[in-house]
Amino acid sequence: MTHRIVGHTIGRLDGAGKVTGADRYSADVTLPGLIWGKALRSPLPHARIVGIDTSRAKALPGVLAVLTAADLPDILVGRRMFDMPLLARDRVRFIGEKVAVVAAVDPDVADEALAQIDVQYEDLPATIDLAKALDNGAPVVHENAGAYEGAPKERPHPNVQSVLRFKLGNVEAGFREADRIFEHTFRTQLAHQGYLEPHAGVVAIDADGRVQVWASNKMPHRLKELMSLALQLPQEKIRVNLTPIGGDFGGKGSLMDLPLAYHLSRVTGRPVKMVMRYAEELMAGNPRHPSLITMRTGVTNDGRIVARQVKSLFNSGAYAAFKPAPSVHLGGAGMGAGVYRMPNLLIESYCVYTHNIPCGHARSPGEPQMVFAGESHMDMIAKELGLDPTEFRRRNLLKDGDLLANGHHLEEVRAKETLEAALEASHWSTPKPGPWIGRGVAMTHRHIGVGFTNARVRLETTGNVTLVIALPDTGTGAHLTLRQVVAEVLGLAIDDVQIELATTDVFENDSGVGGSRVTHTGGRAAYHACEKLKELIAAETAKLGTPGASLAAIAQAAAREGRTLEASHFYDAKTHAAVTSFTAQVAEVAVDPATGQVSVRHFTTAHDVGTVINPIGHQGQIEGGLIQGLGYALMEELPTEDGRISTLNLGETKLPTIADIPPLTTVLVEDAVGPGPFRAKAIGEGSISAVAPAIANAVADACGVRILDLPITAEKVYFALRAKEQRAREQQS
Amino acid sequence: MNRTIRITVNGVAREVEVPTYRTLLDCLRYDLGLTGSKEGCGVGVCGACTVLLDGRMVSSCIALAVFADGHEVTTVEGLAGDERLHPVQQAFMDCGGFQCGICTPGQVVAAKALLDTIENPTEAQIKEWMLGNLCRCTGYYKIVESIQAAAKAVEP
To answer: What one-character DSSP code corresponds to residue A403?
Structure first.
């Protein structure tokens, strides 16, 4: 089916404010009388607070308030499980936890005030190492975590935050059918989402007591609910104003400093801005969970998987507060099954408390961890079986009607087509161009997001149409995509459709941005609202009695009678569709035998997609996610020593630069079977997760060493190569 | 200690009193209200705060405002003409060279400086020049494409 606007390449027409600097992000918001808030953070991973002396800070000229936990209500906050105090009360549980907050006339004075606060601590033993967190006698992070609101019931160890299980068939019986059983353990690192805009927010209290919020937060309505709970104010007392968000990648959904900004505003009577420094982001943001994953798989001699058991530990740090799912877990745990048919499966996943930075959601939460483990494991098994890694995969790929780990059955499965497309485009079967060069393949799939979105379309008297939504712009180009949907349905030009961003006063509720859902839920809401508007327009035209009347004339006729032609739709996707999106990726790498340095010579990414509404935005999601995956594979890490992150700036914490990007081939396996408008699927989280295992598998192919822990640094490859040489020498002698 | 400095910002002479420790970025953003330049890393690594000082790129988050006394500063707000975007800005929009936009002011300022210096840069020259401007959204492919398109557009 051909469309007039959907699927056509148009530039980022929505971006004039971004290329000219005119757009105002949260940190750019200024108000009369605005002052600055800053937080003092714990230097210890676990300690009792013996005393806090704020007298010198309070005496500093330009300081308007200094608050500690004693000045605040005894409230715990969170996105689903409420276990985090606004400021540490009696005890700190990670390096970077906030213990006091100041407000001052400018940020420099605020910094000076922080230096004048004297906190006395008494060191306590800490649980730092994930592998030891569930030992008997490990220092307990929260003595009575089960009593927290939203806490899951199952608590096999005091340091367990949540347990998630996925079960298909009978795994013990399955292993009895196996000819061979393989077990491998993988580790993944602590990694920040890497958005370049640190968390920022402004809170002001109007004369009538209304709380106004501007924040880098992608879920304005949920933010309003959470603020209402944190501030003990009714929701109607709070208004969240939407601002552009300077990168999200899962990380911009929590309260962060906003309740503190409110309390500073409450005691000073001034609007308060709080902007985290990047060092604070790295020590106290809500980064991607490190993991320790053991995979055990039973196979028959002809390469069919008969059973898999997965045990995963996710290092959640000191608080569960940043995790939004009702399970207080990471959905990615279910990806332990990969893209394969599992007749018998048991995944047991634990989110674990430690005295480290609390972790949160990052683009495809839990999936890069699980997919690295699973897809590395697949290649290691294939090698032992003497099978080509692609052939081993082919024998086990999901097909129509198969079950996912969560029990959902699948339709319209394009796993094999996607794999073959990636292999063909990467010239998989051609000879490799030289020694120390290897190729690796990896696959994953990503469900299409659920959630609920409101859309209102209004016919203006100019004949233009305004789409009112409460979805902030996180950068994906979603606003433009939604304009395309509206223009397509109503037969308008793209320039005749504009977006009006609703504050949280306009709609009752909205799930905001996340889970790759916006094109699906926002698109369907806009689509159906437009269908309703079309009916109104038809009725109005009939009433007017002039067939072919312009939209402007119709709207003006209605306006003369004091009416506005507008229609709304609330779209709620409660459950996941039976279709998913598959990804197959091939990395070709070169390994420097002298240094262990891995360079990616070429990368191929193939995606099973529905109707592509905005090709530039779609490809942008693929490329952006892929390079985040590349960084995760090769360089990104927040190394910690005794709970202290040792690389607290972006010079030492590596993110990929423009010089790190490999030549890229993208293949889209298009089939219009998605649940989105015009049968679109999701793409935002499809390209990140398989990159690391594709590279790990390519490194193994290039030089025969298997790296089981991310990132795959030159140092790790170097020592693995030296160990391999040593083993070879020992075998000879 | 405060000092009064005179800087020409985007062609307009400005006089402003600043503490001597004030960064050029904070001076632009908070004293002059030019919030286009962004603070990302705050340590001169990410490039979101890139401005031109007498035509040369500087990280304004680690440059002191007093060092700009008597000099010309160009920020992202100064690139477009009255009616038209600068070709670099237009190319970033046409090719999707940005997503969230937080690094974009620095990217377009750096790219303008590149094209002022090398008319028709090769891909390798683009990558070398733009090395100090991080972007977390795009994966950079469309930034390279945007700069190549802009180079074509400014060709005489």
So the answer is: B
Helix boundaries (H) for A564-610: none
Model pLDDT, residue A632: 98
Q: From chain B, pick out residues whose CB is under 8 angstroms from the CB of A17.
A: 101
Strands A160-168 and A272-275: unpaired
Establish whether this prediction's ipTM goes over 0.95.
yes
Q: What is the CATH number of domain A26-124+197-246+252-284?
A: 3.90.1170.50
Residue where a domain stops, chosen among B77, B106, B123: B77
Instruction: Assign residue B128 the CATH number of its domain.
Output: 1.10.150.120
Residue A656 CA to residue A637 CA, distance in Å, equals 12
Was domain A450-573 assigned CATH 3.30.420.240? no
C-alpha dihedral (B81, B82, B85, B86), degrees to nearest 10: 0
This prediction has a pTM of: 0.98
Chain A, residues 76-105, CB within 8 A of chain B, namely none
User: Is the separation of the CB atoms in A620 and B98 below 8 Å?
Assistant: no
> Is the torsion defined by CA of A153, A156, A157, A161 positive or negative?
negative
Interface test with B, best of A20, A29, A280, A616 (most B CBs within 10 A): A20
B44 with B102, same domain: the answer is no
Q: Which residues of A touch B77 (CB under 8 A)?
A: 20-22
The pLDDT score that the predictor gives to residue A547 is 84
- In this structure, what are the phi and psi dihedrals at residue A177, rounded to the nearest 5 degrees? -80, -15
Q: Where are the domains of chain A?
A: 26-124+197-246+252-284, 291-448+577-727, 450-573
How do residues A399-439 score in pLDDT, each as one tens digit?
A: 999 999 988 899 999 999 999 999 999 999 999 999 999 99
Which residues form the domain of B146? 87-154
The contacts of residue B102 (CB under 8 Å, 6+ apart) are A25, A195, A196, A197, A246, A247, B38, B40, B48
Token digits for A464? 């233009």
